[in-house]
Amino acid sequence: MRKILVVGAGQSGLQLALGLQSRGYEVTLMSNRTADEIRTGRVMSTQCMFHTALQHERDLRLNFWESQAPKIRGLGVSVAAPGSFGPGPSQRAIDWLGRFDGFAQSVDQRVKMAGWMETFAQRGGQLVIHGAAVGDLDYFSRVYDLVLVAAGKGELVRMFGRDASRSPSSEPQRALAVAYVHGLGPRPEHPDTEAVRCNLVPGVGEMFVMPTVTTSGRADILFWEGVPGGPLDAFKDVRDPAEHLSLTLDLMKKFLPGSTRGPPRSN
């Protein structure tokens, strides 16, 4: 039986480890955090899995949250009209909603990664909590038949240089800020359709609104992508959740009036 090491316990590393495990390989999974540390830690990202990706999870019997997560039936795009910022009805140069043939879903990565790590161990996999370093490679090469690096950061990842032909930008093109909230009302134009909404403000940035399931149940993700140095690049020194939410609401009122209903509260 081939012995395989997977370094990194994110979406790709965990699914790879569990898939190889289901095919009878002896798999070791290496993570720099325990399942409990992931589950109780800070929000790691936004995420949305579409029909094909969800089917891969079903095939591996990993779709544990399918009955709990909102079924996202559509994708909406809105583009603010020039000069439409401020109070009053939204002025949108473009506003449409497309509906999917198969639904998408979003599960907070803290919920999914922690659950999958525990499942991997329960199914007989060896879980090692260790931050892999370059100095470990000699040991890895002697013990394992194959080493797969599926991590997103860390010393090992820095061995793989940026491919300029695939990534022309050497500096971040957006300043990111995310909040998971409860109590967000439906979009007035499609109150009966769960959808990911992409709200674009030319020259300023974007806001994505995404239904999800998180550690505290059903929620919505408010995700800002701000042009660096612009008005949405305002969260760098914000550490308090209430302050983050207050700033988010102020920016929504200015740049996305009428895009949502209801007074959300931070998670």
TrEMBL record:
InterPro entries: FAD/NAD-bd_sf (IPR036188), StyA_sbd (IPR041654)
Highest taxon of source: Bacteria
Domain Styrene monooxygenase StyA putative substrate binding: 152-258
Protein name: Styrene monooxygenase StyA putative substrate binding domain-containing protein
Source organism of the structure: Streptomyces haneummycinicus
UniProt lineage: Bacteria, Bacillati, Actinomycetota, Actinomycetes, Kitasatosporales
